[in-house]
Amino acid sequence: MTPPFTTVSLTLTSDLTQLEALLAWFNQYRPTTLPIEEWLKLELALAEGFTNAVRHAHRDRPPETPIRIDLSLAATEIELRIWDQGDPFDLMAKLQTLPTQIPLEAEGGRGLRLLATITDELDYQRVEDGGNCLILRKILKTTPQ
Asked: Which regions form coiled coils (predicted)?
């Protein structure tokens, strides 16, 4: 990532009721130069990533288990990192098993496909302390002057 203009972090508990606070925190950092449609897509990706951490990565963990969100804003990109304490998960292998178009009545997978569609770069890495980091990166299109 290019040097960010802004990097901020927020830590929440593994509770879906925290989603409103997460989105309020996120929305205070919307760059005025970014079209609202693009920001709303990132907001949706953030909500999906947080929800997945609560429902899947932390399903067997106490609700006090922290989830940290890092937001980095640069002139050329926006990066979100969602840190969880769950078991390892191979995101890329799972994405390869999902159909390109997932029916609405499907039991799961829509959220992962959505993340892959919204972001320019998507990764889920195991980190040394035993947790994981979901990386969502969106490259910002510059408009000609």
From this structure: none
